[in-house]
Amino acid sequence: MSVRSLSHPSGVRLVGAASLTLALALGASAQDEQRLPPAPDHHDVQCAPDNGGITLPPGFCAAVVADQVGRARHIVTSPNGSLYVALADAPNGSALGGVLALRDTDGDGDADVTERFGDKGGNGIAYGFGHLFFAQNDRLLRYVLPPWRFLPIGQPKTVVSGLPADGDHVNKTVVLGGFDGYLGTLFLNIGSASNACQEENRVKGSPGIDPCPELPVRAGVWQFFAFRSNQTQDDGRRFVKGARNMVALDINPRNGRLYGVQNGRDQLHELWPDVFTPQQDLVLPSEELFRLDFGADYGWPYCFHDPERGKVLAPEYGGDGEIEGRCAQVREPLSWFPAHWAPLSMLFYTGHQFPQRYRRGAFVAFHGSRFDPVNQPEGPGYNVVFVPFGNNGLPSGDFEVFADGFAGTPEPTPETALHRPVGLAQGPDGSLYITDDKGGRIWRVVYTGN
Length: 450
Fold this sequence. Notes:
This protein has one domain (about 5-445): TolB, C-terminal domain (Neuraminidase). About 5% of the residues lie in helices and about 30% in strands. The protein is built from 3 helices and 28 strands. The chain has helices spanning about 15-25, 270, 280-285, and strands spanning about 5, 15, 60-65, 70-75, 85-90, 100-105, 115, 125-130, 130-135, 140-145, 155-160, 175, 185-190, 220-225, 235-240, 250, 255-260, 285-290, 305, 310-315, 335, 345-350, 360-365, 385, 400-405, 420-425, 430-435, 440-445. The protein has a 4-stranded antiparallel sheet with strand order 3-28-27-26, with no helix packed on it. It has a 4-stranded antiparallel sheet with strand order 4-5-6-7, with no helix packed on it.
């Protein structure tokens, strides 16, 4: 079989992923498992009377696919309609994560076949070219999973290992390329180890380290070969820098470009009470939506975004809450969201089930604010929002709340919320799947008409 290769911008030759992985998948025996039938579409879904506890726009309803499955993080669907959910380990060690495989054989919305595999938890998951990718905190695994199978073949290969997994932000997200038409690569976020690269992390008045030593190895998005095994971080390339913790990532299929939503910094008043008031701390900084362009700098830790002023210099680096300073060279976001909502996943919708206005936009899942909701002017988050996009690859309007009510209480905190949205995925029929790592619930949102 001939294998096509593509030129990588760095001069490296990339193996044509589609040809290579098709050969791997066809080489695996399909006789040890009966081929799965096509996934039922949304017409037979039996929505829950209360939509599983969430609110949706008119014409939409939701079924509960599964419940109490553990700390359900990111989710992906395969071409045959099977679901694969990344499960995180329990913080106290009481339960180990892995991958949860789900299948709804009769199309009613309830998964009637479930399996788990893997012995360690993670956050990110992706499917493509007959393989399932699972991102743990310190490594990325790749399973052979042809589209006719429900469970992988054999043991996983390690794509990348030795990734930074200490400090404040350890969750990894995996997104498969094509960026700019180049196949065979993937993107991984590597979050910062600190809040703002202070000499003493999260200590009042501690100055920032300049230059920040984290930037060469953290606080960015890295690009790796998707189908090469046993890589280290040095084998990849830093795609963008200055991204504090960008776990919400996706490629816009209309232009092939990578986008992300940034988790902004914390504790402006707590660490710098002479500069910021408690009221400012509730609304600063913004959670920022960016298009991620190779080589770009998105400002952390030197800058943050004020929705009224734009980019301002961080107090750790001499900022007074107003001056722009070195941040004049940093990009403004394409759009922004309320402070502390904690974006954890992003999905560009490409299906044909939802009305036309949704077919060029993106959904973003927000985990929810840590602040007392009484003091959150724009609400505490705990929702999924929709951002309309134009043909030019830019947001074409303000975001709107699409799914809400996850927390189950009007004044939620991370401790009292019943559910906290995390993962988003689109099914083959255009259904939208949403995961929750607090109650372990998974929803399937369908459009039924007005």
